[in-house]
């Protein structure tokens, strides 16, 4: 007879357990290399169609009734019995809270009694869930030791959630770590999640733990995880929890794992504050220099500048707080005037000071410092600025060092991401080409250039030219399948597309047509009516320039032929194709990368290998 489940009482839950109304379902855990099912996670359900059918409702009711530990043990027993009866192969993963595991192992022989001879303990992986925190991690080690002594493996579940921390991983040294689904869902489009999982991967390799990615729900996320080298996965895309679990991977998931294209890893395209060696840029610029108190006189300033001839300025402080800055050159020029030393020497130094100096906290990021370069107050270029540590005087900096630091960091950042379009720069581009070549994946490398862009830029100015470049970037991004195609910004009006989409040609043609039509809106009405602009060519002669248009030179690398190429050779071939494309009415030329042995030296020298290029 079924138990009424509306009453939240210990007797009701205990009766539910006693009458064995708990049902076990199993979700496959899959090897992401070959698609083999390595095991199953055992999950519990309440009576079908009842309010307690879901595990969340079931355990919430047990918690209110004070029967959580009993329910955990009963759920494990139900899963073990059903797993053995089904004759499933591989490992069985069972969930336990920290309290339940303590209760299980503190009774000595009860640890082995859990398996009751029904299932070999060596086939069981015990997962420590996030339901409650491990208050004393060091004291919990004997629990893990007892599980391993019984033959079971130990896993840390939902890593990255509140209770599954690095501290627990380091001290308990799990055999398996299951990455929380938060980090897995949409990892194909989230650079921060990607980097977080990559960090977990590095630590797993160091600690010897096997990673399981939980929550895989689509093909894009699966292929990213596969190409990252994550060994094992679990999620609805690979298989849902079922009472009769699959013995082989579903066809759609198997096809995804066998896909020939490689994943396009999400790129963190905005870099701020990085200085290359871990220190803050402002701190690197700091000049250690003495400061003067506000009661100091102009004679004190003169004595300091005379004693320290390389000091470009001196800060005036009240206590430890900077309140003014005196520029050396401006001060000495005043003192060179007749009678100034006699008139002002004994007066307060604030008389000739900048009472509103630029203050830069030594932890300030490059982007924050860069705002100074665009501000209306440019006195820092001559006066320099004061560097502070939590508001206290720490030293000085020069305007020249500020400009140099911002420039250097932005040049470095541009290698990773173009500062105008935020598209990946040269380093990520080369890295993705190398991945394509190392996997022998077939692809089309398309070098994109804008015809007549320089005359447009000269006529309309850099601001309007930047708008055209951003428009081109958007058109090219729209032409890509973000899970298969990689778009990078080489610099200026040069872009690189690495297509794995089979419909690459249609995508490129559509991009060319869309850009060529849309670019005309950046011209003045009179120039649109005239069909272009009048200007001067590179020799200074008067010339007429048609509208800005897009040219795409493409190199085809067939599957299995990647090993004979390098990223530099690919880029060179694509650049050659681009130069040909600029002369074609269609704006698209394709070169077969298989002919590179003869094509590169010939075209690099003479650009005459017409037979090897196909206008499209």
From TrEMBL:
User: Taxonomically, which superkingdom?
Assistant: Bacteria
Q: Which residues form the GGDEF domain?
A: 441-594
Q: Which SMART domains does the record match to this protein?
A: EAL, GGDEF
List each copy of the EAL domain by range: 6-255
What CDD domains does the entry give? CBS_pair_GGDEF_EAL (cd04598), EAL (cd01948)
The protein's name? Diguanylate cyclase/phosphodiesterase
């Amino acid at each position: 007879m079924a138990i009424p489940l509306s009453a939240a009482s210990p007797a009701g839950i205990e009766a539910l357990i006693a009458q064995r109304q708990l049902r076990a379902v199993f979700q496959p855990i899959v090897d992401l290399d070959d698609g083999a099912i390595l095991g199953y996670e055992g999950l519990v359900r309440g009576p079908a169609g009842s309010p307690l059918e879901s595990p969340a409702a079931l355990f919430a009711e047990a918690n209110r009734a004070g029967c959580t530990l009993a329910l955990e043990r009963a759920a494990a027993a139900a899963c073990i019995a059903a797993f053995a009866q089904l004759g499933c192969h591989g490992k069985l993963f069972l969930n336990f809270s920290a309290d339940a595991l303590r209760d299980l192992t503190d009774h000595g022989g009860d640890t082995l009694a859990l398996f009751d001879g029904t299932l070999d303990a060596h086939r069981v992986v015990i997962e420590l869930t996030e339901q409650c925190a491990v208050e004393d991690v060091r004291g919990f080690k004997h629990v893990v030791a007892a599980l391993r002594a019984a033959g079971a493996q130990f896993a840390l579940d939902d890593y990255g959630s509140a209770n599954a921390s690095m501290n627990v991983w380091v001290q308990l040294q799990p055999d398996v770590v299951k990455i929380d689904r938060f980090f897995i869902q949409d990892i194909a489009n989230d650079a921060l999640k990607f980097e977080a999982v990559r960090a977990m991967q590095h630590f797993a390799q160091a600690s010897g733990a096997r990673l399981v990615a939980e929550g895989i729900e689509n093909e894009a996320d699966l292929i990213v995880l596969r190409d990252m080298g994550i060994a094992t996965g679990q999620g609805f895309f690979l298989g849902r929890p079922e009472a009769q679990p699959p013995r082989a991977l579903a066809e759609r998931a198997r096809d995804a794992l066998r896909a020939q294209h490689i994943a396009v890893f999400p790129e963190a395209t905005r870099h701020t504050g990085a200085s290359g060696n871990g220190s803050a840029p402002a701190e690197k610029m700091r000049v250690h220099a003495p400061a003067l108190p506000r009661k100091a006189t102009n004679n004190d300033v003169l004595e300091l500048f005379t004693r320290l001839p390389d000091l470009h300025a001196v800060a005036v402080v009240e206590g430890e707080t900077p309140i003014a800055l005196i520029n050396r050159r401006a001060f000495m020029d005043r003192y060179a005037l007749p009678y100034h030393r006699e008139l002002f020497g004994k007066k307060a130094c604030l008389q000739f000071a900048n009472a509103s100096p630029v203050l830069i906290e030594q932890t300030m990021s490059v982007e924050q410092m860069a705002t100074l370069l665009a501000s209306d107050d440019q006195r820092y270029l001559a006066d320099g600025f004061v560097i502070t540590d939590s508001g206290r005087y720490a030293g000085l900096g020069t305007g020249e060092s500020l400009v140099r630091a911002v420039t250097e960091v932005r040049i470095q950042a541009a290698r990773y991401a173009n500062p105008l379009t935020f598209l990946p720069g040269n380093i990520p581009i080369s890295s993705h080409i190398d991945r394509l070549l190392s996997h022998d994946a077939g692809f089309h490398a398309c070098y994109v250039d804008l015809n007549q862009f320089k005359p447009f830029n000269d006529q309309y100015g850099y601001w309007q030219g930047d708008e055209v470049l951003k428009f081109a970037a958007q058109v090219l991004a729209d032409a890509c399948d973000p899970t298969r195609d990689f778009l990078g910004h080489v610099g200026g009006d040069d872009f690189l597309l690495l297509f794995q989409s089979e419909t690459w040609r249609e995508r490129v043609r559509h991009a060319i047509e869309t850009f060529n039509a849309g670019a005309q809106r950046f011209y003045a009405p009179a120039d649109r009516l005239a069909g272009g602009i009048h200007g001067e060519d590179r020799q200074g002669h008067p010339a007429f320039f048609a509208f800005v248009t897009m040219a795409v030179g493409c190199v085809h690398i067939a599957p299995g032929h990647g090993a004979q190429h390098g990223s530099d050779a690919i880029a060179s071939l694509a650049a050659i194709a681009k130069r040909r494309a600029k002369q074609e009415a269609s704006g698209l030329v394709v070169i077969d990368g298989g002919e590179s042995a003869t094509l590169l030296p010939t075209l690099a020298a003479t650009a005459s290998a017409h037979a090897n290029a196909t206008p499209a």
